[in-house]
């Protein structure tokens, strides 16, 4: 009975999240939920299989028959996430098994079926409340800033009708990759289109690790490579490698951490032997999707593909935060002993590109406060959803994942900034000590956000967000277009 009650709370919360319930409704539910959780109900004997919904497997029954391994993985990846209850009027959907698509033919044993195109919105623009989302001119103005303006209003862009119709990975991927694709082969961009679409489809509608996050990381990766002038020293194929790696770095992310997958003996943890589980999975998905498109794959020689695949794996695996300081120290040690030479040594260049994708992956911390707070809210909502399931499974909750301790989030962010983000961007800034752009925009945003978290110490995240939403403050964000 208690287990059913706890499970129902998780399902209700997912339903409200999926259907963008009004704040008054969500607030009333949170009061009830928190009252139940305050009793610290302890459950035992609830296996991971109980958490898996049969809805996903029934929806996917129209697709080709899956092997036992595929079915098990598909049930996990789709069943442990919010289910698709959106009507045709509420969301743009994709047909998983359309005869016009080959998504179900990708030979990867753990490839999730395409999902309805949801989970693309973090929230509205906080700096411009009067955006005309039907304006082609305003849309094209924002699109032109992709890969070229760290402070661009990506939240505004994500709410334009044209953006939601195409989706984040397709929109951003086209803009960033098109120029380099033209340099590689006349047919490159045309043949790449289904790959970008499939990458977008395998992103799941998580509160944070969704397709918009993937697109945002690719945009930031492009900005960093450009402003630090690292792009000047890569070949077109290498530029494609770091852009596609950034776009797909969280492809198929189930909204759970590596620690959760290990604790529940998830099949991904068994396949990858507990080592960078999700990162190995994301890199594998990217490469399998590319290999599945034979006409595109033929554009590469064997040597070119091996080089591209090597760099994709290198960059995506580096996003595992467990290896955070290893990658910082790889650069720091070479810099201190005077051997760092990224202009002439390709391996040094890629050590720096690793720091770029790591910076981009946690890049919302270096955005203006009004955007950073929106992304932080979504991140902790995803953490709390995992915490709810951990409570069901009697897994000890970490601080970040316990929604009853929201007042500790500000201080945890302080620790994250001071202990993890600052060493990363400080080291990356030394690539070009005279780079005014990096200091003026990226590091300045980080400093300002750190001060905001200090100012809001011990306050509940919900109250901090509410203050922002109710404020009449006009957020004047400096233009950060690269000259």
UniProtKB/TrEMBL annotation:
The record's listing under InterPro entries reads: HD/PDEase_dom, PDEase, PDEase_catalytic_dom, PDEase_catalytic_dom_sf
| CDD domains registered for this protein in UniProt | HDc
| Ranges for domain PDEase | 132-460
Task: Write down the Pfam families for this protein, in alphabetical order.
Answer: PDEase_I
Q: Which SMART domains match?
A: HDc (SM00471)
Name the domain of life: Eukaryota
Listed name of the protein: 3'5'-cyclic nucleotide phosphodiesterase, putative
Residues involved in AMP binding: 209-213, 250, 361, 413
What species is given as this protein's source? Babesia caballi
- Quick one: which residues bind Zn(2+) 2? 250
Tagged with keyword Metal-binding: yes
GO molecular function (one): 3',5'-cyclic-nucleotide phosphodiesterase activity
**Signal peptide residue numbers:** none
